[in-house]
Design brief:
Elements lengths: L2 H8 L9 H21 L8 E6 L3 H10 L5 E7 L3 H11 L4 E3 L2 H5 L6 E4 L6 H10 L3 E5 L9 H11 L3 E4 L6 H11 L6 E9 L22 H4 L11 H5 L10 H18 L6 E7 L12 E8 L8 E8 L7 E8 L2 E6 L4 E6 L19 H14 L2 H4 L7 E4 L6 H15 L7 H20 L3 E4 L4 E2 L1
Parallel strand pairs: 1-2, 1-4, 2-3, 4-5, 5-6, 7-10
Antiparallel strand pairs: 7-11, 8-9, 8-15, 9-10, 11-12, 12-13, 13-14, 15-16
Helix pairs in contact: 6-7, 7-15, 8-11, 11-15
Length: 464
């Protein structure tokens, strides 16, 4: 680490003269250099990583593209239950890639080193476990489990097989979140006491009303395999297949899709293992299209005091019919400032507010309700005890950080995963971290559907 870098980190907690320019130049320089070196690295034949993607929906295509930005990564095959997506995969990635509608055919291939699992949520855990038993490295989309009961078994298999396993919540690899964590740990906002985090959306696509192809049918979709592990079987329904996030039989609703992004970032910055109490409410306010999960949901989550952090509370909210428009934020509130992380890991701001030494007198106060003699005596005493400096609220400049133009956290998340596959480096989001972020979000669903407070043992990762 450079001398400038050490000095910068040493003074983060006390300096009030940081500007957005100095923060950007010092904090981003090292990360940019690492990314440039990684992109320019020459990869030999023995360093090549051959991947396959299971589930070629929106995230499957996006994850595959992000993975292929890492030098030395080659796509071998794709799996999907809709024939049209396999044809599209060949159009995009080359006619010679292997395609199948059976994930087991992917896992049986000797030329596949790692798999991306981007299926509907109900298949994440089962396919991940199969893949690890087959000796494959696993990149699992979030949430890593469909049900809380699946988490400990998946963690057990990862430890037994020693497979590389990473969960796909890219915020934990974001340069902005890394810098935010440094500032948080340096005391930039004082002692944390609460967090407000939300996703607002205002569009049909944002509410998961995804486009359905004209040729969708039982002839082009392997409907039986899709719902093979569902407790209740339905006749073929294109909406249930192509818009599976709307149905709790296959998805995990707004909690599993979006709360988990928020909690992953929160846990990363605060080093928290998780909360102890969870309660949520929700409504199906607008998108009455047959879905059986809410489109507006709020949760109150309590984190107890641990060696990692003081006690604090988190409020989470998703609104799929928000007049504010599309907007996401995580506000970490401390005793001396607020850290506001917007977007998907592309930047943050810190606004500072520190109370003066003196408690204050007059204004919105009971002082004026006393006699004039009492008021004068109280004011004289106050001015004797507190200097003018003590009575002034400190004026501490805030700061703004933005990731470099064109930066994409998903690319860094995959670069980390591939480094782990190639060199045995630790992943940034392993199965334990992934489950500790996912389980409280799935508990939000349990709280909503069962109308009760859920008590969670974050250390042992189980419902109390």
């Amino acid at each position: 680490m450079s001398t400038d870098r050490r000095k910068f980190l040493k003074h983060l907690g006390t300096s009030v003269l940081l500007t957005s320019a100095s923060l950007t130049s010092l904090a981003a320089r090292e990360e940019n250099e690492l990314r440039i070196l990684r992109a320019e690295k020459r990869v030999g034949p023995n360093d090549k990583i051959r991947i396959a993607t299971i589930g070629m929906g929106i995230m499957g295509f996006n994850d595959t593209r992000a993975a292929l930005t890492v030098p030395g990564v080659e796509l071998v095959g794709c799996c999907d239950l809709y024939k049209g997506r396999l044809e599209r995969a060949k159009e995009v990635f080359g006619k010679d890639i292997f395609t199948t509608d059976d994930h087991r055919a992917i896992l049986d291939r000797k030329d596949v080193d790692a798999v991306i699992i981007a299926t509907s949520d109900n298949w994440h855990s089962a396919i991940a476990i199969d893949a690890m038993h087959k000796g494959k490295a696993v990149y699992s989309e979030k949430p890593m489990v469909h049900k809380i009961s699946q988490g400990l078994e998946e963690i057990k298999v990862q430890k037994q097989t020693k497979s590389v396993f990473q969960v796909g919540s890219q915020r934990v690899s974001s340069i902005a979140y890394k810098k935010a964590k440094e500032l948080y740990e340096a005391g930039a906002i004082g002692q944390i006491n609460s967090i407000e985090a939300s996703f607002n959306r205002q569009s049909a696509l944002g509410a998961w009303q995804y486009t359905i192809p004209f040729d969708a049918s039982v002839q082009t979709v392997d409907w039986a395999r899709f719902q093979a592990n569902a407790p209740v079987k339905y006749d073929y329904d294109s909406k249930r297949f192509f818009r599976w996030r709307n149905y709790r039989e296959y998805g995990t609703g707004v909690a599993g899709d979006l709360f988990v992004h928020l909690l992953s970032g929160i846990h990363f910055i605060t080093s928290s293992k998780g909360p102890e109490k969870i309660y949520s409410i929700g409504d199906l306010a607008y998108w009455k299209d047959g879905r059986n999960v809410p489109d507006v949901m709020s949760a109150v989550i309590h984190y107890g005091e641990t060696k990692e952090h003081p006690a604090f509370q988190v409020t989470l909210r998703v609104n799929f019919i928000s007049g504010e428009g599309d907007h996401s934020t995580t506000k970490i509130v401390g005793s001396e400032g607020v850290m506001d992380l917007g977007g998907e890991g592309d930047g943050f701001t810190i606004r500072k507010s520190k109370m003066p030494v003196a408690p204050g007198i007059g204004g919105w106060d009971s002082l004026y309700t006393f006699t004039e003699a009492q008021q004068k005596a109280l004011m004289d005493d106050y001015n004797k005890r507190y200097s003018q400096a003590d009575q002034q609220e400190p004026n501490i400049p805030g700061l703004t950080y933005r990731a470099p133009e064109g930066y994409n956290a998903s690319n860094d998340h995959f670069a980390n995963f591939m480094d782990a596959v190639r060199n045995g480096m630790p992943v940034v989001e392993d199965a334990v971290f992934g489950f500790r972020a996912a389980a409280p979000c799935l508990a939000c669903n349990d709280s909503y559907f069962e109308n009760k407070v859920i008590h969670w043992d974050a250390e042992n990762m189980k419902i109390v």
